[in-house]
């Protein structure tokens, strides 16, 4: 006669649910529609270092939205720094306070990538950013590719 072992049953249910979750995530990824191509909007303003923002012409561009208050952004910032040393990167810091506060934050973490301070979230709204960090990649023609 077979005995019901509650722990074994719970373990089998948990494994089954895990497999179901993984399969559903893979299917969602496969069925995910392509990102619609969008042109890079015009962005103007002064960068944190005081220089005027000029978007590169004929070069790919990475635009990265982040916040000093965002724990994932803190972990990711060394990677953004490394990428910015090889590629054109514009970071837009959102709802993170004064230029002085952001400069201190960057100095403490030895970061020196290009930063546009989006105090009120204007640029985040224009790019429809609701989750942080968010990164967009534009090709040499200004079309969003990722």
Short description:
The protein has 146 residues and is of the alpha/beta class.
Describe this structure in words.
The chain is of the alpha/beta class and 146 residues long. The protein folds into two domains: 1-32; 61-138, 3-Layer(aba) Sandwich (Glutaredoxin), CATH 3.40.30. The chain has helices at residues 6-31, 71-84, 99-108, 122-126, and strands at 61-66, 89-94, 114-118, 134-138. It has a four-stranded mixed beta sheet with strand order 3-2-1-4. The longest helix has 26 residues, at 6-31. The N and C termini lie far apart (58 Å). The model has no long low-confidence stretch (mean pLDDT 86).
Please render the helix and strand layout as text.
Blueprint lengths: L5 H26 L29 E6 L4 H14 L4 E6 L4 H10 L5 E5 L3 H5 L7 E5 L8
Parallel strand pairs: 1-2, 2-3
Antiparallel strand pairs: 1-4
């Amino acid at each position: 006669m077979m005995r019901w072992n509650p722990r074994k049953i719970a373990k089998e249910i948990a494994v089954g649910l895990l497999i179901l979750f993984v399969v559903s995530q893979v299917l969602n990824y496969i069925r995910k529609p392509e990102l619609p191509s969008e042109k890079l909007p015009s962005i103007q303003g002064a960068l944190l270092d005081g220089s005027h923002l000029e978007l590169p012409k004929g070069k790919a561009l990475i635009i990265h939205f982040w916040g000093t208050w965002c724990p994932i952004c803190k972990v990711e910032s060394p990677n953004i720094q490394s990428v910015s040393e090889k590629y054109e990167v514009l970071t837009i810091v959102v709802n993170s306070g004064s230029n002085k506060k952001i400069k201190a934050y960057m100095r403490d973490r030895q970061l020196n990538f290009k930063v546009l301070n989006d105090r009120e979230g204007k640029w985040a709204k224009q790019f429809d950013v609701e989750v942080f960090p968010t990164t967009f990649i534009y090709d040499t023609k200004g079309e969003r590719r990722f």
